[in-house]
Amino acid sequence: MRLRQRISMGCVFMVVSASIALGQTRGKAEDALLAADVAWEKVYAAKDLAKAVAFCGEHGSMLVPNAPIATGKEALTKAIASDFAQGNTTWHPNKVGVARSGELGYTSGTTDLTFKDPSGKTVTSKGNYLTVWKKVDGSWRVLFDSFNFE
Amino acid sequence: MRLRQRISMGCVFMVVSASIALGQTRGKAEDALLAADVAWEKVYAAKDLAKAVAFCGEHGSMLVPNAPIATGKEALTKAIASDFAQGNTTWHPNKVGVARSGELGYTSGTTDLTFKDPSGKTVTSKGNYLTVWKKVDGSWRVLFDSFNFE
After folding, report:
1. Pair A55, A141: CB distance under 8 Å
2. pTM of the entire structure?
């Protein structure tokens, strides 16, 4: 019983720590959405175009700096391929939220674009992103993704 | 009875037309969020700093191009004041969505920033925006606002 209590306390501590790290209250729904964000980042950072596009909803949109808004799979494929060609993108979520009804949510955090400038020097642009997600047939899909650089 | 039917049909037609204009299904919740977006644009375009900031939640964030993320009333006040100083901002929503539970939603659309370039010529930068809203004490408040220019 004491051991079980200790394990429970340990779990509570871990959950509280994770919540503090993200600066907000998190439950299972938020954890699942965060996992989707992290999984999308993994295939995006690996420049796997097909898998990166597959995370987006049928009518998803990307708001890319210095480009028209991209809506729908064809436009998203072009926008993501163009992003891959520019350099290496990574991101880290620091906010997550899911509606009580469970089908709409958001993630937000920091993003880095590392590329070679015209002189051949490696440069990293630091920015921020905001993604709106919708659950489609049980899976989180990107409805909107917006980012800009500092 | 026939008149009531005609009025009902007229209302249905109007709602359907509005839905088609926004390219999606809309209900009362979406209309209320759209009204909040339009009301925010009105005070923002009029450069009413106090009213523009009042639309933002206590822990709201703005993702502004070429600037660090602004979170919280103080940072938002500075970010919005800086935006007002740059030129005249207007926007028009073309997408809206509200979670079934009614407390989380988004709006998205086009935004224009009109300003004078160094030569004194009036220039308009065209862009896109994405706003995540949360209902606080019955009122829609901005949780995240992100925009960038084409």
Report:
1. yes
2. 0.85
